[in-house]
Structures are given as C-alpha cells and as structure tokens.
Protein: Cysteine desulfuration protein SufE
Organism: Sodalis ligni
Amino acid sequence: MNEPITDRHPFGHAISSEEIRARFAGCRQWEERLRQIILLAKALPELPEALKTPETALSGCENRVWLGHVRQEDGSLHFYAASDGRIVKGLLAIVLTAVEGKTPAQLAGQDPLAPFDDLGLRAELSVSRAGGLAAIAGRINAIVDSYIAN
C-alpha cells in the first residue's frame, strides 16, 4: 500500500527492541508479562477506519486484526496494525518493534516472531494466539517477499 500514514506509532522508534527486553527482564510470572503486553497495547495508536480494509485484514486470528504497510522514500517499510483485542494489540506492538523502519533486504530471512522467543512469551501463548501470530508473520513475510522478488 502506498497511502499516506500520518499517525506514527512509537514502536521501533521511541520504543526499541532493547526497551522491550528491559520491560520484560524483571517479569517472573505470566501475569507480569501479560501486564507489560497490555501496557504496550495502550501505546499503539488507534488505526484510522480508512486503513481497516479487506486488504489489511488478517484471517486466522482470534480477534479482528489489520496489518498494512507503506514503503518510505528511503526504501524502509512503515508497518501499521490494529486489533480489537488488548492482548493481540500488545503482541502486535512487539512485532512492530522488530520490523518497523527496516528495509525488505534487512527483513528478508528474519523471523518477525523471534522477539517472542527472546522474551520467553511464545511458549506461554494459547494455541489460537500462536496461530494469530503465525498469520501476522506470514503477512509480514509476504510483504517482504513482494519487494525482494521485484
């Protein structure tokens, strides 16, 4: 998609992968991790309704999820996302931190879900949330592949 996005999210910019790791470093129990996920969800701005299109909608997720992107003039990708569910929205924020502002070449061959392993979250997610994350990763990989192939 190449439509203008005026609402920037802080993930990958003001909130870095290092900051996400620091937030989760002191969490010993799932409830503490869940609280951090919900706090991250609150930092993800609402997506304008105009960007919640059939093209950006994802299937395979427990909640409604939208994930789109814009290629910037410098070749980097700006991803935007939303979900109706607080937890899924927080999970999206973690993914966005890992992929935002990178070029397709930088993202090629990378697992967008690697942060969940680093944070010890993947094993604690329900089967349906894990399936939703797989759909999110699949969309990101398809976007990256579309630029690599050209």
Observations:
- The mean pLDDT is 88.
- The helical segments are 17-25, 30-43, 86-99, 104-107, 114-118, 127-148.
- The chain has one domain: 17-149.
